[in-house]
């Protein structure tokens, strides 16, 4: 789905903006970058500002016109800070645009088009689009640079995709932050019971106390790192017990 979403940059003047836009794309899972007549590309500044997204810069396709860049797309959204006089459908909110574009991208290529740094897209270029979108901003100072605009709208696309029932999105979590298995919890409670008995905290089997402590840790839901810390604490206490 995300692989069907194309970012098109039209006549980008500063090569660093190409790299920064590629970085913005990659953080949001987008990989298809097309450049229409960039002033200077390839360029070391583009690779430098990509900062880990050099693969997108290296794989970017350069074409001679916007029409060529979007010829196979079923929906083309032009990002424009100024509303033109053309009667194109306009998304009032970027999240609305994102949901619609992601839905179309489930089956066919779509594109999100960004114009030049200084004056955006021309009317002729907007005619190549099927829709327009603007980013709501401070009416007294609504100026975003190119990569910022890419980042904002790419984030909207990623959010819409993430919330889609078919996305299969699962946030990555470090192993130590994951919940422990039932076996790991069982070993912890066995260790806890052993230390309580050896320390004299419990002098005879007392199921109610043990059940209450199990309930306490069930509510606390310690992750694997925290459980390991507790096991280390118990082991240290146990090593100082006379009969350990």
Automatic annotation (TrEMBL):
SUPFAM superfamilies: alpha/beta knot. Keywords: Cytoplasm, Methyltransferase, S-adenosyl-L-methionine, Transferase, tRNA processing. One of its GO terms (biological process) is tRNA nucleoside ribose methylation. Pfam families: SpoU_methylase (PF00588). Gene3D superfamilies: 1.10.8.590, 3.40.1280.10. The keyword Methyltransferase applies. GO terms for cellular component: cytosol. CDD domains: SpoU-like_TrmJ. It catalyses: uridine(32) in tRNA + S-adenosyl-L-methionine = 2'-O-methyluridine(32) in tRNA + S-adenosyl-L-homocysteine + H(+); cytidine(32) in tRNA + S-adenosyl-L-methionine = 2'-O-methylcytidine(32) in tRNA + S-adenosyl-L-homocysteine + H(+). It comes from the Bacteria. It is found in: Cytoplasm. Its EC number is 2.1.1.200. InterPro entries: Alpha/beta_knot_MTases, RNA_MeTrfase_TrmJ/LasT, SpoU_MeTrfase, tRNA_m1G_MTases_N. The keyword tRNA processing applies. Residues 5-154 form the tRNA/rRNA methyltransferase SpoU type domain. NCBIfam families: rRNA_methyl_1. Belongs to the class IV-like SAM-binding methyltransferase superfamily. RNA methyltransferase TrmH family. PANTHER family: TRNA (CYTIDINE_URIDINE-2'-O-)-METHYLTRANSFERASE TRMJ, TRNA/RRNA METHYLTRANSFERASE. This is tRNA (cytidine/uridine-2'-O-)-methyltransferase TrmJ.
